[in-house]
Amino acid sequence: MRLKTSLLKEPKHKELVSCVGWTTADELYSCSDDHQIMKWNLLTSETTRVVKLPDDTYPIDLHWLPRSVGGKKQSHAESFVLTSSDGKFHLISKSGRVEKSVEAHCGAVLAGRWNSEGTALATVGEDGQVKIWSKSGMLRSTLAQQGTPVYSVAWGPDSEKVLYTSGKQLIIKPLQPNVKVLQWKAHDGLILKTDWNSVNELILSAGEDCKYKVWDSYGHLLYSSQPHEYPITSIAWSGDGELFAVGSFHTLRLCDKTGWSYALEKPNTGSIFNIAWSVDGTQLAGACGNGHVIFAHVVEQRWEWKNFEITLIKRRTMQVHNVIDDAVDLLEFRDRVIKASLNYGHLVVSTSLQCYVFSTKNWNTPLIFDLKEGTVTLILQAERHFLLVDGGGLYLYSYEGRLISSPKFPGMRTDILNAQTVSLSNDTLAVKDKADEKVIYIFDALSGKPLGDGKPLTHKTEIVEIALDQKGLTSERKIAFIDKNRDLYITSVKRFGKEQKIVKIGTMVQTLAWNDTSNILCGIQDTRFTVWYYPNTVYVDKELLTKTLYEKDASEFSKNPQIVHFVGNQITIRRADGSLIHLNISPYPVILHEYVSSSKWEDAVRLCRFVKATATDEDQTMWACLAAMAVANKDMATAEIAYASIGEIDKVQYINSIKDLPSKESRMAHILLFSGNTQEAETLLLQTGLIYQAIQVNIDLYNWDRALELAVKHKTHVDTVLAYRQKFLEDFGKKETNKRFLQYAEGLEVDWNKIKAKIEMEIAKERERAATSATVRASVTVQQ
User: Fold this and answer.
1) Where is the IFT80/172/WDR35 TPR domain (predicted)?
2) What mean pLDDT is predicted for residues 59-84?
3) Number of alpha carbons in the 13 Å side-chain half-sphere of residue 160
């Protein structure tokens, strides 16, 4: 990725340009110390003067009022705030008319910024004050007062906090009084510029110590650049939070959100005092010290998938390179490309007005449809469909271009969603709520309605990243998520009535990704790269989980690595310096998943034996995965072989005891017990009328109170429960203290012979019942 810059031969402004701002994707306003405000039209390459300011007004900062005001979308910005050196800020309309000038600070007003809704304005000045104003320019509050000038200000993502500079310090102050203020030393020199992005919630700062830095919203340093030759005079996030630009003397740099640099340009501009990104994030403009305005387009983005490599070579042209046969195709578009995504055999490209869908099998005939909103901020793909996110909402399309659904939830803000906070699979869409970060909304992809009982998934702490698995049955769809403490959890998305357990499967997890062809999860936790070959194990046999993992030392990935792809058995990881590392994992677990999903149990066992024969260490992992998969699919014969192979003899014996049970219902209940689902096992037995079995299960688990409760309720086997309780207490040499047991034990003689006879009768009855139901079933089949 690089910047393609353009400068006019002669500058249009006579003096230095102090600030620039975009109205639409093709129109820019610039202000200069020559008191002129100029308008630049990029489509016609015309430059016109909008207005000449009074001679004593030297502009310092400009910010257009945001487009979406009160939920209504405006196609372009209508007015802007201009701060100046005479202590005033001016509200100016698009035509250049000064609507209002307000005396704001003693000394120059160094920066002015609207919040994301356009309902409040923050200004900072040489007098060290931070003030909040209403949209019409009425003073609401003086947020802070200090002895040094404040050079830059930025609103927090939720417009509840304000970030401003104080010498070498950065300060985050909430608008609410009595809330803790966050302050930290950020640079060794004066901080000149700062910016806070609402999508990724990261903070940028640039200073006279010639460095730029990236921080999280708690003030933790994520990246610090090497010192440049000159102070960094400007810095700005692109709208979607994926890139940022850095300006200095004769220097323009394009960086990834994690801090590493894509490209460095050395234009003849003098210092770049201000950088503004266009609305669609495809280009930026810089205000230059020598009177120029520099324009720079982001080109040469790259997308990779399997054997295809796609590059945006010009604003409206993509090049497709098939690395197997070296075939090259050129894709031409009518308008400039804004976003693209390549996955699952399809390339989805959004331009300013249309969406193109290409199949990797045929690059000549794309499917094209028009877009309502225009600026797409995110494209996510699944195997059967893809999601477009723009300022207006979430839209799910099939690869044939048909709109499938458009999910909505209360207080939805789509402009701040990214790939970490939205996840898509073939049947489910998950969105993390920004208003309450502990909540994930889960939708049925095809209808757009909330899944299950309509309640969102709620966690105990704030969630940072979410990911849905891609394969398997809808009823078994799982979601993995990382919370603020960097713990990794997994849970099922289908939630009808009963609360599904949220289970923790990892700690200190930096990044995660599901495989595209089978439900294998990989992540980097602390110093280890981990692959969970069968995460569902936690619901089947929790003790097995550690045996189903593959772990590798992750020190080669350096600090803060990110997983980019997990396709087939290849994982691509981007290190903090921007370099890519490719890892291969064993192909066998993927094959095992395929066999199990098509119920080829014999083949699965054969595969595990083959892996054992190849004398690798992973045969234990494979057998453990197979054991968990077999129990999950109620195939106890395979489970027995697998457990025997990993030496879990107690479980083999239990599985054998399940086989000897008289009826199918009992066997099912004991399989549920095996996975630790005691409540479900008991419910199943009671529903099918096997009261004695339900009581016996509770006795075996030493749930004495529940066993007695069931016996009394169904007026049967009270003596059995009391007998087993008595024996239990005698074995431990204890006396009965439980009042209920004492109450029922009065006048009840325990006769073991009677009890045993009763139990045998129950089992015989159950056998008989199972046999009759089997013959009934058989006769029904014959009649049909």
Assistant:
1) 622-768
2) 76
3) 9
- pLDDT tens digit sequence for 725-745: 888 888 888 888 888 887 877
Q: What is the pLDDT of residues 283-306, one digit of tens each?
A: 999 999 999 999 999 999 999 998
Cα distance from N-terminal residue to C-terminal residue, the chain: 67
Specify the pLDDT at position 775.
67
Strands 362-370 and 376-381 come out as unpaired
Of the candidates 120, 124, 129, 111, the residue with the CA atom closest to the CA atom of residue 63: 111
375: left (phi over 0), alpha (psi -120 to 50) or beta: beta
CA distance 658 to 652: 10
Residue 62 bridge partners (DSSP): 82
Q: What is the DSSP string of 273-326?
A: EEEEE-TTSSEEEEEETTS-EEEEEEE--EEEETTEEEEEEETTEEEEEETTTT
Compute the C-alpha angle 220/561/621, nearest 5°.
Answer: 125
Q: Strand locations in 568-692, DSSP E?
A: 570-574, 580-584
Give the count of alpha carbons within 13 A of 459, CB side only: 29
Q: How many helices (H) and strands (E) does the chain have?
A: 13, 55
Task: Supply the pTM of this predicted model.
Answer: 0.88
pLDDT tens per residue across span 681-705: 788 778 877 787 888 888 788 888 8
**Half-sphere exposure for 696 (CA within 13 Å, toward CB):** 16
User: What is the C-alpha separation between 120 and 158, in angstroms, rounded?
Assistant: 12
3-state DSSP call for residue 69? strand
Q: For residues 125 and 106, is the Cβ–Cβ distance under 8 A?
A: yes
The C-alpha R_g of the chain, in whole angstroms, comes to: 33
Give residue 125's region: left, alpha or beta (phi > 0; psi -120 to 50).
Answer: beta
Would you call 728 helix, strand, or coil by DSSP?
A: helix
Per-residue confidence band for 499, with pLDDT thresholds at 50, 70 and 90: low
